[in-house]
Description:
With 433 residues, the protein is of the alpha/beta class. Helix content is 46%, strand content 13%. The strands form five sheets. Strands 6-7-10-5-11 form a five-stranded parallel β-sheet, sandwiched between helices. It has a three-stranded mixed β-sheet with strand order 12-13-14. Helix 8 (267-276) crosses helix 11 (307-313).
Amino acid sequence: MAKDIYHACSICKRKIKIQDQYDMPIYDPGSGFAICRECIKNINQFLEENEQAQQRREKRRFALELDKIIDKNRPHVIKQFLDEYIINQDRAKKILSVAVYNHYKRMKYMEDKREKEDGIEIEKSNVIMLGPSGCGKTALISHLAQLLDIPFAVTDASSLTEAGFVGADVEVAVRNLYYAADKDIEKTEHGIIYLDEFDKIARKSGENNSITADPGHEGVQQGLLKMIEGNVVEFTARGQRKHPEAPTIKVDTTNILFIVGGAFVGIDKIIEKRLKKDDASIGFSLKSGHKKSGEAKYDELIGQVTPEDLMKYGIIPEIIGRLPIICTLENLDEDALLRILTEPRNAPVRQYKELMALDGIELVFTQEALRAVAKKAIARKTGARSLKGIIEEAMLDLMFELPKSKQPRRVTVNADCIEKGEKPLVEPLYEEN
């Protein structure tokens, strides 16, 4: 009769039959290393408890960071920071400053509530922004994220499609934030997602009677619903195809602030139609004797937008309920664009002056040139976003030729350079002795 062979577990030293694979699931005859099932259970339990403890430490660490964020970024401080970069839009700055401040106070409250197991549920301060193209919607949000030093990601909502159609799934918005946070899930779960071109996913009922599926409108809004409200979102890493066996990354969106924005072209007509039903409410403005310019009338109307107007436009009621704060932005007139060119810390003219100074060139813009740039941007109907492009067009040939020589020079850009494409005036720059 064969003699039973025993081997001791390398951890607990308990002797177990080698033949009993259930009790000794890990055994290497070459090295003699073995681990019994009981030790494997203990190791797994230790790892789980250690992971839970690490998560608790991370939450305590983030709670302390929240205190610092809240203390350093009160609404008036946030607005002061935005004033350094964004011209006009004072009401929008106030709305966003309060919304962000309350969002982080809510997170702090929810952390304290989890420990005390009492209190009420405070809903998120998600924001919907409406304003014409180039009025500063994306710039406001990006500078907010810069101040708070938190992950921020922009996703073009018009590229999203309903699951099953060609295009990007709604989860791509969270995936973009995950990579913006350097793959740190904890940071991702407390960042800001900005969905641009949100008006492009408004449903087209009544305008399009086609019986075919509409993958870019109501279905996308339904897909975004749970994500905006707060839910665990699963997505695959970039470059991986989505299939049942692919490893996924899970992110809880409960504490992610969602801000959606768009031009909502034509919504002013919806607002005007609603207001005309009650002559008394608008007689002093829209029916006044003097004619208003198109921009002035738009600014007046957009400031009176309601959730009902957004529903008429094609945003489903459930989404509007998850976006309780409506933030409207006004048109930028010529004077505002002039200020944008020179006043903000990162103004386009300042940027070009610094770039040219690296080649020993003093760059000068005449006031007439700056006004010509502003007028050209208004003519293009692109707002502030085209200012830098207009200057680039006028400076391109010069920026190509000037680095050929290291001689210090002064370059003067006048109105003709902007309006007629003439070359800027280049003259030697002599340093004083």
